[in-house]
Specification:
Layout (H helix, E strand, L loop, with lengths): L5 E2 L9 H13 L4 E3 L7 H8 L8 E6 L10 H16 L4 E6 L4 H20 L16 H20 L3 E7 L3 H9 L7 E5 L6 H12 L3 E5 L5 H4 L9 H10 L3 H10 L3 E3 L6 H8 L8 H8 L10 H10 L5
Parallel strand pairs: 1-2, 2-3, 3-4, 4-5, 5-6, 6-7, 7-8
Helix pairs in contact: 1-2, 3-5, 4-5, 9-10
The structure holds NADP nicotinamide-adenine-dinucleotide phosphate (NAP).
């Protein structure tokens, strides 16, 4: 899988469709060869259009099964298979290079649905002893819920065996979820796509370490700091160590953050509409940070968090130093 890809999330404005397709085409023309999409981004048709102008074997396509839509009303196997098959049709490909379970989120649906079923059963039997068919813990069928993620993963592994997915993986899975897959005797995912930037928690660093130790590749989103995280803090400036690393190399702070991620053997998928940013993002593998810089950037989490993501983006952009 190419270590530098292009994200495609969340541009829903229909007027932006042409711009979006042009950006993917420009990314490919600039040498980019990895596109990250998902069922829930609702852009498979646009990705298909962009792919029609590309050599299929020259581009790596990652998509994701929308786990928020997986309910307990059908088997996980049926739903994951349907999600993969419809994604292939929407993308106009015979095989997707990497299909991920987008999040371990079906647990919530299954817990809610199991709780509702339990309530109905208890009401029907008026609490009679023969309600033991459902294991209720505070109204929640815990066993069914934790099975759901494992069953969805088992189903996705089957899709890989059927040849519809070249590789399979997960996204937003924690060590708890990955351990459950191991415990079920299933192969581990090829990739775990997670939020990763210098401001993530120690737990996220431990997750990356766990993945690498178990030979699960890691892809980062939110490389410049995500809205959820950056809203927690106070400072609105590029950390001095990032600014200095950018200044001495004549590159931007964004490039330094991507290089910092790549040098930890984590692939990146920044999204951009700008040709200049595409070019610089694709070239970040040429930037070599020193061990000391990597360490200093890695300890930023305990210090400052910019307040607002958009504001942070603007400020980090302003401070960009170009040759
Ligand atoms: N698996 C998941 O749950 C999950 C969650 C979130 C995102 N994702 C994936 O990750 C991708 C990235 O999303 P993200 O939230 O991490 O956003 P991001 O790509 O980190 O940030 C996008 C913003 O960064 C700017 N940008 C990109 N490269 C730049 C550069 N070199 N210099 C200056 N600005 C630059 C873009 O503006 P310009 O257009 O002006 O360059 C855009 O405003 C998504 O598109 C999606 O594919 C996955």
């Amino acid at each position: 899988m190419p270590m530098i890809g292009m994200g495609t999330c969340c541009r829903r404005d229909p007027k932006g469709r042409r711009e979006f397709i042009s950006a993917l085409e420009a990314f490919y023309a600039t040498g980019g060869s990895h596109i990250d999409t998902a069922q829930s981004y609702d852009n498979h048709a646009d990705v298909k259009q962009a792919l029609s102008a590309m050599e299929r074997d020259q581009v790596w396509v990652t998509s994701k099964v929308n786990m928020l839509a997986v309910t307990s009303h059908k088997t996980a196997d049926q739903q994951v298979r349907a999600a993969v098959e419809s994604s292939l049709i929407e993308l106009g490909v015979d095989q997707v290079d990497l299909m991920l379970l987008h999040e371990p989120a079906c647990e919530n649906n299954w817990q809610r649905e199991a709780a509702e079923a339990s309530k109905q059963l208890l009401a029907a039997t008026k609490g009679a002893a023969n309600s033991s068919a459902v294991v209720v813990d505070d109204g929640i069928n815990v066993a069914a819920a934790s099975r759901c993620t494992v069953e969805a993963w088992r189903a996705l592994v089957k899709q890989q065996h059927s040849g519809k997915c070249r590789a399979v993986g997960v996204s937003n899975f924690g060590v708890r979820h990955l351990s459950a897959l191991l415990g079920a005797g299933l192969p581990l995912p090829a990739v775990n796509e997670v939020e990763f930037h210098p401001w993530v928690s120690h737990e996220q660093y431990r997750l990356v370490e766990w993945c690498h130790r178990h030979r699960v590749a890691v892809t980062a989103f939110g490389s410049f700091g995500s809205s959820r995280r950056v809203k927690r803090g106070n400072a609105l400036e590029v950390p001095a160590v990032v600014a200095e690393a950018a200044r001495v190399r004549g590159v931007s702070a964004h490039e330094i953050l991507l290089a910092w991620t790549l040098q930890q053997n984590i692939s990146v998928i920044p999204q951009t509409n700008s040709l200049a940013h595409m070019r610089s993002n694709l070239a970040v593998h040429e930037i070599r940070l020193t061990g000391s810089e990597i360490k200093q950037i890695s300890t930023l989490g305990g210090s400052a968090y910019p307040k607002d993501w958009k504001e942070y983006g603007k400020i980090i952009h302003k401070l960009t130093v170009k040759p």
